[in-house]
C-alpha cells in the first residue's frame, strides 16, 4: 500500500495535455514545498508525489451537502487551452473556461484551487498584443485574475529560444502548482478543523455520532498524509485512539454492531480500504474488532511511511522499533479481547501469526542498518509467532515438555480445527517439522535479544531450547545450554526453576559420562534437597562419594552444613596443645564422612599471621549435630577473627570464608601451665653492647629441644644473633649460621624460666622496636610445637647521665648528673660507682649503698675524685648505676597480693594476662615516694580493657567480681626488703672515657706578702706557671720529633677592677726534652697590677693559648688550666689622707 496523494485534475478541451504530458511528468514530483500555516509550525515537504487525473465535461460532481473529507477530491484543477486570436477567444474559448469554473471548481465540497494554462504551438500566429491593443493571453489574465489578486494564468510554448527560457517557464508553472496545492491544503485544514470543533462541542449531547466525528477528524489526518506530513497525521490518529480508549473505558460502545472476528480477518493492507471502512464507520456498521484493527493498521502504516522517508538510519530504526512495540501491544490486547469474548484460540493464534508475518514482509522493504535498535521489538514478535505455532501444535497433541510453556490451557482446543494459512500448514505437517520451526523461532529470537541487554529473556529462551533438546534426547546440546543457566536463574530469584534445570543437567551429564561436570553439578544440586526425593538425594551423595577420591573441587560449606564456632580456646591438660570446639549440623538427610577439617584464624593486627586448628576424620550423621574438637600445636598470643573453615573429603573441600561476614572474634593468651615466651630488656644494660632479651618459660612439660630465630622489624635496629647467650649456666645455647641465625637450646626442665640475650646495633636513636621470634620445640615425647612472638617493646633507658670534668695537676674531679629517661618515670638509685681502673685511686663522698630518687626535673648528682698513681690512669672506665623504677616497686607491691589470691583458684590461668595488665597500670608514684602506700584506681577492676578482649563475657564478670571481693579495702603497703628480695634491681653500665689533655697548666698570681694594697698604687706580682703532661695521650712519632711547643699567656681584664703597667702578656716555650714527657715545667713572669677601686677585688685571670702551628696530620694541642686564684680576692684600701667619712 502507498500513501494517499494529492489529486491534480485537468480539463483538456483542445487536446493540449498530450503535447505537454512528457514535460509535465519530467517536472514531478513537487519538491521543497514550504507550508506556513498561521496556526501551525512551518513544515518543509521535501518531495510530494501527486496523482494526475483527467476530468470529463459530462462527469458528475458529488453532492455538495456530502460530509467534507469523506473522499478524496482534487487539490488543484488545470484547464489547458489553445487560442490564437481574440475573436476566437471571445467566441468559444472564454465560455468554455467560465463553464468549467462554474461546474467543476466553484461548487466543490472541499476547497480547490485552479490554473488556466494557455498553450502556444510552433508556427502559431497568435497576436501577442502591443501598447494599444491587448493580446489573447492578456485578455485571459484580464478576465480571470480579478478575484483575490491571485495570478492563475500561465502561458506555455511548444518551443523556446533557449533552454534557460524553457526552464524558467516550467519553473513558474510548477511554482504555481505548488502554491495552489498548499493554498488548497491550508483551506481544507481550516475547514476540517472548524467542523471538528463543532462536532466535538456536541459530544455530550444525547445521540452524538462518534462515527461522523471519527470520519471528519480522519479527513484531517488523511489531508496530512496526502501532503507527506506523516507525523501530523499520526498525531491525529493517536488523538482518535485516546478518545476511543476513553469511550471503551466508559463502555460507551453502542455504535458498534458486534464484537466481530467471525472469520479470520483480511490483511492490514486490505482492511485499510478507506472508502468502505469510512462509510461503515459513518453508518455505524462496523464491528468492534474491525474498528480497532482498522485504527491500528492506519497508525502502523503511517509509522512505516515515516521510517521510509526518514533522513537518518537512527530515526528509521527508532520508528521501526516503535512499530514493533505497537504491534506487540495490539496483538496482546486483541488476544485478551478475543479470548475473553469466547473466540476460538486456534483462530486467534492463526490470525496473530499472519499479522506478524505480514509486517515482517513490509518492514523488509525499509532500509535499516541499525539492528540493535530494532532487535528487541523483533525478538518479541518472533516469540508471538512461536506462541501461535505452539498453540496450534497443541491441538494436534504436540507439546514442549517442562517449564515456560506458553499454551493457555484454560481455553479449549478444537482437535478438528482446519488451518487456512499455508505457511502454518507446512510448519505443522509432522511433529518433527513443528519442533524444528519452534527451535528456529526460538534461536532467531535469541539472536535478536543477544543484541540487547535482555539477559533474563535470553536465559528463558536458552531454557526452552535446552528442554526441547532434552525432550528430543539431544543430551549434549541440552547440557551445553544448561551449563550456566541454573546459576543465572538462581541469581534472578527463580530458585525452583533453577533447581529443576540443574536436576535435568545432572541427568544429561549422567548420560554423557562427564564425571567432572557431574561431580560439580551434583554438589551444586545437593543443597536443594527439599525439592528432591530421598532416592535422588541418595544417588547424589553416592555420586559425590564416588568422584571425590579422584576429582579436585571446592564448594561452600554453609550450603550443606550449619556451623557454630565456640569463641573459647582452652589448653589440653598436660600438653601445650590448644583446643577449639565447633558444633556442626548436617542439613542433608544423608550421612557424610570426612577425612579431616581445618579451622583458620587471622590475627587482627597482622593479616599474614594465620593460626590453624585441625581435626581428624569424623562422620556427620543425617539431620544431626556433632561437636568437633580442633587442636593446634602452634601458639601466637593476640586477638583473632575466624578466617575460614574447611572440611576435607578426598580431593573435595567444603570451605566457608568468614572474612566478609560479621567477625567472630577469638583471643589466644598464654597460661602458666604452658610454654610461654616474651621479649624484654635485660636487667643489666651495658651501653657498650646493648642487648635484647627473650624470656622463655617452660610449663608443666620439659622441653627436649628448642630452635629459635630472632628477627627485627624495626629498620634502624640490627640484631647480632650470632652472639646470643643464655642467662642460665645450666642451659647453654648454640648458634648456627642462617638467615637469620639459628639458636638452639636443649633439655630445659619443666617450670623453668631463663633468658636468651642478643646484642643489637642502633643506626639511629629510637625509643621502641618491633621484634619477632619463631620458636620450634619438642617435648620428651618428641611431639612438635611452635611458638610465635610478635612484640613491640620499649628500649629507651630509664636513666639519662651527663658528666662534667675538672682537671688538676695530679687529680681529676668528675661530676655525674643522673636524671629520668625519656619516659619520665621516677627512679630510685640504689648504687653508683666507677669500676675498671687499676691505675688510679677513685673516691667519692657518698657510701656505695644509697637511696636517692630522681624525679622529672629533680636530678641527682654524684662526684668522683680520681687521683693518678705513678702510672698514667686507664683511659676507659665504667660508671655502674643500680636502680629501680618506682612504677616497678608499685607493681610488685600490688602483684604480690594478687599472685597470692590467684594461687590455686580457677582464675590462676589468667595470671600472665593480669601480670601484664598490672605491670602497665598507671600508679601514683609521687604519693608512693613519700608514703610507701600504693593506690589503685577505684574503677580499675571494672576497666580491665587489655584483659577483657581475651575473656568471654562470663569469665570477665567472674574475674571482676573475684578481684573486687578480694581487693576491696586492701591497703598496699611497701616493704622494700621484700621488693629487693624479688630481684627487681636494674643495672646501667656506662662506658666512661677519662678525659685527656696534652698540657695541664697550674697558674698562680703571687702577690707581695705583709703589705697593704692601696687603690691606684702599683702592686708588683709574679705569674707562676707550672705544666704537666700526666693526662696527655701517648705521643705519635711525629709529635716525638718536635723540638718544642710555644704558648702565649695574657692577663684578662676584670670589669674596670684592674689595669696593668708594663708587660701584661708574653710567650714561653716548653723544650723538646720536656714536651710530651712526664716531667713538669715551671715558669715565672713579673706583672705590675694597679687596682682601680676599693674593696675585695677578684684576682685577675691569666689565659694560656697555644702559639705554635702544628702539621695538619697532627692532632691539635689540648690545654687545661687550673687557676689557683680563681676564687681569691684582694683587699684594696684607700690612702689614709684621702679617706672621706660620711655620717
From TrEMBL:
Species: Geotrichum candidum
Pfam families reported for this sequence: DUF7076, DUF7077, NTS_TR130, TRAPPC10, TRAPPC10_1st
InterPro entries, per the entry: DUF7076, DUF7077, NTS_TR130, TRAPPC10/Trs130, TRAPPC10/Trs130_C, TRAPPC10/Trs130_N
Listed GO biological process terms: early endosome to Golgi transport; intra-Golgi vesicle-mediated transport
GO cellular component, one term: TRAPPII protein complex
Protein name: Similar to Saccharomyces cerevisiae YMR218C TRS130 One of 10 subunits of the transport protein particle (TRAPP) complex of the cis-Golgi
DUF7077 domain residues: 673-793
Domain of life: Eukaryota
Domain TRAPPC10/Trs130 N-terminal: 4-309
TRAPPC10/Trs130 C-terminal domain: residues covered: 991-1133
Subcellular location: Golgi apparatus
Domain Trs130 NTS: 323-516
Domain DUF7076: 548-658
UniProt keyword list: Golgi apparatus, Transport
